[in-house]
């Protein structure tokens, strides 16, 4: 029976146990080597761009953010501080505006910032009301004042 088993083997069966194939392994190592070489060149180019990721910036100069307040004077003499109405008597007593502006000036001085006041006066507003607002700002020691007209005009 031993003869019959040997005779049944074909010529290809004798070479079926080839062993460890080195050529495919060299191909895989070469592909991995090319991959890592291209990766390191990309990292080097990224480093040469001198870009910095966003984060906290350290500055030596102080940046001023002025505290802007808008005082509106309507055509009927009504005052608005940042679109909030300020009660006005028939006279020229504007204690609430004086108190508000004094408090704003004190807060700005404590924070070491400037107060910027913009007076938006209606063209039909009485002039004495704008003068009253200027007197209040002078009493509160606010000297950075600008004028503008409302957008509706």
Task: List strands and helices in order, with pairings.
Layout: H1 2-8, H2 22-48, E1 67-73, E2 79-81, E3 84-86, H3 95-111, E4 115-121, H4 127-139, E5 145-148
Parallel strand pairs: 1-4, 4-5
Antiparallel strand pairs: 1-2, 2-3
Helix pairs in contact: 3-4
Task: Report on the architecture of this protein.
The protein is α/β, with parallel strands linked by helices and 153 residues long. The chain has a domain at 67-148: Nucleotidyltransferase, domain 5 (2-Layer Sandwich). It is built from four helices and five strands; from the N terminus they run ααβββαβαβ. The chain has a five-stranded mixed beta sheet, with helices on one face. β4, α4 (127-139) and β5 form a beta-alpha-beta unit. α3 (95-111) crosses α4 (127-139). The protein is rod-shaped and about 120 Å long. The relative contact order is 0.12.
Brief characterization of the structure:
This protein has four helices and five strands.
What are the main properties of this structure?
Nucleotidyltransferase, domain 5; 5 strands; 153 residues; 42% helix; rod-shaped; alpha/beta
| CATH domain class of the domain at 67-148 | Alpha Beta
Which percent band covers the strand fraction? 15-25%
Give, in order, the helices and strands.
HHEEEHEHE
Shape: rod-shaped
Q: In percent, how helical is the residue content?
A: 40-55%
- Which residues sit in consecutive blocks of at least 5 with pLDDT less than 50? none
Number of helices: 4
CATH topology of the domain at 67-148: Nucleotidyltransferase, domain 5
Span from first to last CA?
Answer: 117 Å
């Amino acid at each position: 029976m031993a003869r019959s088993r040997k005779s049944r083997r074909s010529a290809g069966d004798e070479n079926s146990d080839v062993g460890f194939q080195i050529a495919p392994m060299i191909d895989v190592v070469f592909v991995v080597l090319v991959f890592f070489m291209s990766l390191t060149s990309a990292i080097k180019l990224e480093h040469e761009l001198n870009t910095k990721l966003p984060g906290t910036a350290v500055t030596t100069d102080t940046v001023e953010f002025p505290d802007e307040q808008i005082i509106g004077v309507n055509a009927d003499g009504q005052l608005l501080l940042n679109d909030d109405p300020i009660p006005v008597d028939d006279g020229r007593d504007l204690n609430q505006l004086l108190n508000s502006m004094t408090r704003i000036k004190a807060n700005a001085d404590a924070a070491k910032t400037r107060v910027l006041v913009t007076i938006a006066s209606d063209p039909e507003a009485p002039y004495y009301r704008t003068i009253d607002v200027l007197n209040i700002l002078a009493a509160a020691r606010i000297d950075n004042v600008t004028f503008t007209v409302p957008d509706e005009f």
